[in-house]
Design a protein that fits this description.
Elements: E1 16-29, E2 32-45, E3 49-53, H1 60-67, E4 75-80, E5 83-84, E6 93-96, H2 108-119, H3 123-136, H4 152-164, E7 170-174, H5 182-199, E8 202-206, H6 210-216, E9 219-223, E10 230-235, H7 250-263
Parallel strand pairs: 3-8, 3-9, 6-7, 7-8
Antiparallel strand pairs: 1-2, 1-4, 4-5, 9-10
């Protein structure tokens, strides 16, 4: 259910890029059954930016792993671009994790090009494609730097470029700014919006930060505590392009507070 009645973002009016159909996930942990989420169903429109929030431990990251094909759901289905997701497919679905996971012995250029090397592309083609996405994230001057020579925000930019280099239609982001300080986090959020507006990807963004969710997203899917169900799908009816000024508006505060009130008493188990 979407509680506000304002006109949806234009991005929400297109066809579905991702369909989550009656998805459930159960683990067996130390001899007991753990139901992570149950019967989740929602669509993500093409070219939209959709956030997933909820209390710690509700299975947000597990849901993203299922969407990426890295974890198999217990029941239900995920359809991406009209095709079921059953295994990882980085050419169709890219993933940016909380930890950049860069290879320390490789330069920025070689880290970004690494997925292309695994595909067997030649060195010249790898470098040309990597250079495009390094430029997109604003790191051309650091192409030959190593990870230890970069700030945390710069390393995360490299991770985003690596996630985009195979030109996937869908980009999944799992708390990509969680380890950054508040100023860097805000700047990275604005950078991600800029990149999204240029690339027209469909983005699914998992976060604990409600300000971040409202600032970035067209829609926020709010999950309950475990076993998670969908409490609400909230349309973020704020104009685009967005600037930091929108955070000071009354509408922004009401949207953020509405989400907070829904999840504040739902539990504080550790995230899986």
């Amino acid at each position: 259910m979407t509680t506000n009645t304002a006109s949806p973002s234009p991005a929400l009016s297109g066809r579905a890029s991702v369909q989550v159909q009656s998805l459930s996930k159960t683990f067996e942990a130390r001899g007991r059954r753990v139901d992570v989420f149950q019967d989740l169903s929602f669509d993500v429109p093409d070219r939209s930016f959709v956030g997933v929030v909820g209390p710690s431990g509700c299975g947000k990251s597990t849901l993203l792993l299922c969407l990426a094909g890295l974890t198999t759901p217990s029941s239900g289905a995920i359809i991406a671009g009209g095709t079921p997701v059953t295994t990882p497919d980085p050419q169709r679905i890219g993933v940016v994790f909380q930890d950049p996971n860069l290879l320390p012995w490789l330069t920025v250029e070689d880290n970004v090009a690494f997925p292309l090397e695994l595909k067997g592309l030649g060195k010249k083609e790898r470098r040309e494609q990597a250079a495009q996405f390094i430029q997109l994230v604003g790191l051309t001057d650091f192409s030959h730097a190593y990870p230890h020579e970069l700030s945390g925000g710069m390393r995360q930019r490299v991770s985003i470029a690596r996630g985009l280099v195979q030109d996937p239609r869908i980009l999944l982001m799992d708390e990509p700014f969680a380890a950054l300080d508040e100023q860097t986090r805000m700047k990275m959020g604005a950078e991600v919006l800029r990149i999204w507006e240029q690339t027209h990807k469909t983005v699914i963004f998992v976060t604990h930060n409600l300000t971040e969710a409202v600032f970035l997203c067209d829609e926020v899917v709010v999950l309950s505590s475990r076993p998670a169900t969908i409490l609400e799908r909230l349309t973020i009816d704020l104009p685009r392009p967005r600037t930091y000024d929108v955070m000071a508006t009354e509408r922004f505060g009401r949207l953020r507070d509405h989400i907070w009130r829904m999840i504040r008493d739902l539990g504080t188990d550790q995230e899986r």
